[in-house]
Structure formats: C-alpha cells, structure tokens
Specification:
The complex is a heterodimer of chains A (305) and B (295). Chain A is globular. In chain A, helix 3 packs across helix 15 and helix 6 packs antiparallel against helix 9. Chain A is mainly α. The longest helix of chain A is centred in the first third of the chain and has 38 residues. Chain B has a single domain, classed as MetI-like (MetI-like fold), CATH 1.10.3720. Chain B is 72% helix and 1% strand. Chain B is built from 15 helices and 2 strands. Chain B has a two-stranded antiparallel sheet with strand order 1-2. In chain B, helix 4 crosses helix 8 and helix 13 runs antiparallel to helix 14. The longest helix of chain B has 35 residues. Classes of the chains: A mainly alpha (305), B mainly alpha (295). The interface between A and B is large, with 90 and 93 residues.
Amino acid sequence: MYTHYKNVVKHIKDYYELYILVMPAVIIILLFNYIPMYGVQIAFREFDPSKGFIGGEFAGLKYFIKFINSFQFTDLIKNTFFLSFYSILAGFPVPIILALFINQIKKAKAKKFIQTVSYMPHFISVIVLVGMLSIFLSPSSGIVGHVYRSFGLDPINFMGATKYFRSIYVLSDIWQHSGWNSIIYIAALSAIDPTLYEAAEVDGANRWQKLIMIDIPSLVPTIIILLILNSGNIMNIGFEKVYLMQNSMNLPVSEVISTYVYKIGIMSNQISYASAIGLFNTMINFVFLVFVNFISKKTSDISLW
Amino acid sequence: MKQRNNDFVFSFLIILICIIIVVVVIYPVYFVFIASVSNPSSVANGNVWLYPKGFTLMGYKEIMKDSRIWVGYKNTLIYAIGGMLISMLFTMPAAYALSRKDFKARGFLMLFFTFTMFFNGGLIPTYLTVKNFHLDNTIWVMLIPFSVNVYNIIISRTFFQNNIPGELLEAAKLDGCSNIQFFVKVVLPLSKAILAVISLYYIVGYWNEYFKALMYLREDRLYPLQMVLRDILTRNQAYASGQLGSGASAEGSVQQKADLVKYGVIVVSTLPIIVIYPLIQKYFDKGVMIGSLKG
C-alpha cells in the first residue's frame, strides 16, 4: 500500500508537466464535445429553455416517431443517402487514379507542379465555390450557357433543375478535393520498396504491368480503411455546400437531413424534434460503419477495431 | 522494341493527362481573374475566353467602396490569426504529451480525444451548449469552442513520435531539463515542418469558415468575410444598399456590373490563401503525410 502511494507521488512528480500540457485541449473537448453528447437527451425530452438539458419532461421516443411518420421522412432519407452514395461512388476512385498517375511522373519538378496545381482548389472556400458555380452555370450570362449557344443549343438552368443538382454537387466536389485527397495515396505509393520495381524490371515488366501488379495492390489497405471511414459518414453529407446550393427550385432533391435539422431547430426553434432527427441520423451512420467494418473484417481482415 | 514502344506511348499519355489536369483545375480560376478586369458586357455576352477584354478596374473600385467587405476582411484576419494562435497553443502541447510513450494517461486520453471523431452531440445540443456559455454573438465563439481539431493532434503526435528520438529526452533529463523546458527548447525547434503544416490547416479553416458565423453570429459588425461573400455571391446583393436598380450604361447592365463585383470579390477573398499555400507546400512531404496515415 505504501509503495503504491509512493509510486503515485513519483508519477505525479515526474509527469505533472505533461498533464499541464494536455489540459487545455482536454478542457475544450470536454466542454464543447462531451457536454453536447450529454445534452443529446433533449431528443427524449420536452425541451424547456429555462431548465436546460435535463430539466424538460421525459418524452420517450415521441419525436423519433414524429419524424418517421412525417411526410418529409422518405424524401429526406432518400436525398441524403443518394447524394452521399453518389459522392462516394463517383468521388472515391478519382483520388486513387490521380495518385497512381502522379506517381508515374518521373521528373521531380513536373510532379511537384502537378501536385501543387491539383491541391489548390481545396483551399477555395465553399461559398466561393458555390458562387463560381452559380456564375458559370447562369443560363443567361454564364460561360457554360455560352458554350451551349455556340453549339446552337438552348442553355439549361443547371442550378435550378432537380435533375442536375446531384451531378453538380458531386462533380464540383471532385474538382475541388480530388487532388487533396490523393495525398494519402501518394504517401502510400512513395513508401513502396524500390526493390519490388527492380525485380519486376528484371522479369521484363513494362510500366503498365508494374502499375497493375505493384502500385494498385499496395494501395488496397489504405483504400479499405478510407472506404470504411467514408461509409461511417454516409449520412453526414456536408451541410455547408448543400445549404448554399439550395434554392426553391431544386429543394425537392436538395433538402437533406442536416439542412432540415438546421431549419427545424435553429430557424423554427423546435429544439427537441431537431435533436431527435440529428440523433436518428447519427445512428444510421453508426450502423453503416459497423456493417462495412464487419464485411471488411470478414473479407479482407482489415478493420478499424 | 515493343517494350520501348509501349513505354513511349505511356509517357505520351502521361504528358497529355498532365495538360488536361492543369487546364481543368486552372481554367475556372483563371477565368474568374480575367473576368474581374474585363468589360462586364463582354463577359456576359461570352466574348471573354483567354484574356481580358476592355480592361477595367471598375469592379475593384466598387469593392473598395464597400465597407461590408472591409469590416469582413478585418474580422476574418482577427479570426484567422487569433484562432490559429489559440489552436496551436492548445494542439501542440497536447500532441506532445500524447506522443510520450512513458506517459501513463496516454491510452485513456487518446481514447478521450478520438472518440469525438466518431461521435458528437449533433448540431442542436452543441448550439445550446455554446449558448449556455453565453458565447454566441461574440468574437469568442469563432476562437474558442472549436479550436481543438483532434485530427491535427493525431498528425502532430505521430510526427513527434517519429522525429524526436528518445535519447534526446534522456540526455536533456540528465542535464536537469524539465518536461516543459524540453518541449519548448528542443521539441518545437525540431518540428518546424509540422508547425508550418498544422498552422496552415488552421488558418485555411478559419479563413474559409462560415458555418459557425451562420450559426452563432447575428450582427454585421462581427461577420467574417465569408458571410459578406455569401450575400454578394449567392444572394446577389452586390451593392450594400441591397438593391440592384435598373437601367444600363456603356459598361453594361446593372446585373452585369454586379457580376463584375462578384468576380472581383472572389479574387480579393481567395488570393491571400492561394498565395501562402505554395510557401508551406514544401513541408507536405511524405514525413508529415505518412504520419496522418498511420494515425
């Protein structure tokens, strides 16, 4: 007992400074991440602004049932899922292909240049991106409208059409983030043992064969991990860009769960209902994450836990 | 012979794809720039493609006159620089403590941090928490509550683990150096690459931030540049008075002039970030990036 006490004293004496170093970050995370988690219970209560998180009367699953029975339910789930699924389906392979391609550039300067250029759009803000989209795609004065006219076609109001909303969202995302997202694959490729290539050359492999036989297989673990992480965010389609791209014409496909939560909770002040919708969304995400992780563990032995 | 032919075709394809990538990425940005200094009616009629036509600085003159943009710019500078400093002050010491394998609380604290990457209270409970602390509609909401990015802690922690040799700590301890002294005098000077990269991540994040402002700020005097841009770019309020009016002049219609202002504000707001990023880019080497991979 005494030696245990002495050990604790020694530990604190040796390490108290490390506790001081980590403490500010711990406090911030505790206050603004863990307290809100504790506050999730307002989804199960009648929120009363004067009483805070735990004061309101217990309401059970009332607001979850209200959401499931609401007429927007199917549309919201469908819009959120399709937009996200389309983003992953179309957006996920591009950074991989880009990384494989950049890795093929042999001249160091050219490689650096292509990397610098392809990362750049990542630094543009969402507002500027959506602003650029609406200027370029304007049917009357936009550059895309002029291209249509020069081919003798009638320009289309892309931003106002339900048909094009998802494609515009996904393609502009690919334009903006593919370069940045390729970094992690480029890092994985640069970690490949050069003797593998030498051995392949001795066997007479050309560049294409080396790409197929060495580069792609070495990316598989990274691809699977990122795929699992992405699927855990399948219903977390970013609020910011969707909200900015929304207009009254594309709303039937552009209203997703996060924008709806914002409108219900912040703009029309139905706090408990909005929290319940948000929590419902988090649970779907979690189920997806566990499911994809399980599949991956069974088939490839790679998993998050 | 066939082999060499094959590789030649391969090299040719690579050059071709390089050109396509550069054009696809650069052209929209380049177009915004040339359109911002061109005659607005030429732009609207589709006559501007490769270089400015009817050179004019009218758009930029309008921007200079607009006090909203200046207030927004000033606020964004405060949020970006102040926020970055606060974030670094919280992130780096924590990352270093967590990089120490002899630190017993490390396992628990890592779990404490990484848990928040997968689970959060959601939009509404977070909003209520910030409100309970009376941080809404103050500059502090932009600087304090979301200043710690766990992902950045993990990248920095991995960097410290891989780049600060254990022998260094042993030697410093023999010289009577305390943990905090070691962190400040030895670790930080050896970690310029990660400091540069993480500062850049934070600055870009703060510079482009609009969600927090949308959620928590209600007064124009506190709005960052991005909120002003939102009014101008997506709500078509190019002029502070809020009305576009009607009528046309030699330079084009009022709407065309409004578009000119839009091109201009994109340039004015995006330029600073695009300029500082290549300066830091040399640090994006595999050392930093692989760090994020291993987690």
